[in-house]
Amino acid sequence: xxxxxxxxxxxxxTTTLAKAKALRTYIEPLITKTKATESKESIxxxxxxxxxxxxxxxxxxxxxxxxxxxxxSRPGGYTRVIKLGARVGDNAEMAMIELVDFxxxxxxxxxxxxxxxxxTRRSGGGKKKxxxxxxxPADAPEATATPxxxxxxxxxxxxxxxxxxxxx
Length: 168
Description:
The chain is mostly helical and 168 residues long. Helix 1 crosses helix 4 and helix 3 crosses helix 4. Strand 2 and strand 3 form a beta hairpin.
C-alpha cells in the first residue's frame, strides 16, 4: 500500500526486485480503474475502490487527476521495472519501478534520436553514394593537385627564408 502511494506520488521509486514485481501486480489494476469513466457514478465508485486499496487521499487524487489522463490511450503496461544490481549491505537485487508515461528523459531521447537516423539512412543514401563515387574520381585529381601546387611555393619560401637569415 505504501509503495503504491509512493510510486503514484513520485512516479519512480527504487526498491528490491521482489517488491517491485509485487507492486506492479498491485498498482496496474488500480491504474486501469482510472480509465473507466463512463458516468459520474462509475467515477465515484472507482475512486472509492482505489481509496480502499491505497488509503491515501492525496495519492488517489494524484492518480485520477495527473496519471489517468496520461495513460488514457495506453492499453496496459503502465509500469517499467529496471534492474539496478545488488545492494551493498545484504546483496539484495535492487530494481527501479517507474510509471512509463512519466519518464520524459527516456521517451524524448529515443524519439529524437530515432527520427534523424531514419531520415539519413532511408533517404536513398546508396544512390547518392554511387553518384558521388562516379563524379569523385574525375574531380579528385584536380582537387588534390590544386592544394599541392599552392602548398609547394609556400613551402619553398618558408625554407628559403630561414636559409637567408642563416647566411646574413
